[in-house]
Specification:
The protein is of the alpha+beta class. The N terminus is likely disordered. It contains 15 helices and seven strands.
Length: 375
């Protein structure tokens, strides 16, 4: 590994772990009904804080015994501060979907202000506690660079209070108490972003040499080649913000899962540029999934508008991924991966970069065969 990569790895170990406590997340926009009451949170699609109070009041007027559960997310502020508001909203949307699926038609789920959710349940204590456990499980999420859990507080209405706002405040106090007790028991969790970032860096060492050789074939100045080499190593660092359930998804990724995949280049660029100040590398990583035909992400660039270094990174990264085992496909033989790159030339990939990659790959293969024969 070149010295500069060693420097980057060490810097990430220190710097990524310090990207916390910066600015927090808003509650998101809400759709309103004709009467002006906020109904649905635009980030999660769940009912809002105001709708919770309205529904709770209606249940109490009907004589129901209602249990209100409040789930305060632990780790979300760190996640949002480290990876940005857009990624934070994506995670909230993902958690909201999981919560809605877990609760189904057996209760009412809500997105509260900030990083918290709520559940209204009517029924026996055994039933409502089981529903709460299912909801809490849905709001736990992990990735290679984060861990989200939740602290739960509850209130029974009208037995403890007949006022909706007081019930909500009581549940919030109990959730805060649960959080304090847990932190005393376990201590504060150290973020794992940096450790995973280092693992991702090391997994790219083999294709980085190919990227350097391709860049030289294409006449890239030596001063810029080091940025390309570093970008190959770091282009998937943004995956630390993606839930493991998404990265290990066995089928074709669509819908909410795909939103995380779209965001990983932005997260990677943020981590590289923000704490390290390495703008040239961050720019290459940002555009490392732009397609030659303009159908890529995050900015939909096409052709020569995509930085040449990013086009090289894209081809090398694709080769690395195709020749590695993935949940949705087994590893391809290198020669088959090269053939796949050639089929994507002119659409997904820059044809000139693919040609240079093929020539370099075949040249290395010939050298290996000659060395084996000589031995």
């Amino acid at each position: 590994m070149p010295v500069v990569i060693g420097f980057i790895s060490g810097a990430i170990l220190g710097a990524v772990a310090m990207l916390f406590l910066l600015r927090g997340s808003g509650a998101g926009r809400a759709e309103a009904d004709p009467a002006g009451e906020a109904v649905l949170d635009s980030v999660t699609g769940l009912a809002t804080h105001d709708r919770l109070l309205s529904d709770l009041g209606r249940e109490l007027e009907g004589g129901s015994e209602v249990t209100l559960y409040l789930f305060a997310l632990d780790g979300f502020k760190d996640y949002n501060d480290a990876y940005g508001d857009v990624c934070g909203d994506a995670l909230l949307g993902w958690l909201g979907r999981k919560l809605r699926d877990a609760v189904g038609s057996y209760g009412l789920a809500y997105r509260m202000r900030g990083g918290s959710f709520a559940l209204l349940a009517v029924g026996s204590e055994r039933f409502t506690d089981a529903l709460c456990a299912s909801a809490a499980s849905a709001l736990n999420e992990t990735g290679d660079g984060f861990q989200i859990s939740c602290d739960v507080g509850s209130a029974s209405l009208p037995s403890e209070t007949a006022l909706p706002r007081e019930g909500l405040e009581l549940a919030a106090r109990r959730a805060a108490k649960a959080a304090g007790e847990r932190h005393v028991r376990s201590g504060r969790r150290a973020p794992s972003d940096a450790i995973e970032a280092l693992r991702l860096v090391r997994s790219r060492q083999d294709v980085a040499a190919l990227a350097v050789a391709i860049a030289r074939r294409l006449g890239v100045p030596e001063a810029d080649i080091v940025h390309i080499e570093n970008a190959v190593h770091l282009c998937d660092v943004g995956n630390v913000a993606v839930p493991r359930a998404v990265l290990s998804y066995p089928g074709k990724i669509t819908g909410p899962e795909w939103q995380f995949i779209h965001l990983h280049t932005l997260v990677g660029a943020r981590l590289i540029a923000g704490p390290l100040g390495m703008e040239p590398v961050a720019r290459l990583v940002r555009h490392s999934h732009e397609r030659w035909d303009g159908a890529g992400y995050p900015d939909g660039l096409s052709g020569d508008a995509i930085p040449l270094g990013s086009r090289i990174v894209f081809v090398c990264s694709a080769f690395h991924d195709m020749t590695s085992d993935r949940p949705h496909h087994p590893a391809l033989e290198p020669v088959d991966a090269v053939a796949q790159l050639e089929r994507g030339a002119g659409g997904q990939f820059d044809p000139a970069v693919v040609l240079a990659f093929r020539d370099e790959f075949l040249g290395e293969a010939d050298e290996a065969l000659e060395a084996e024969a000589a031995a």
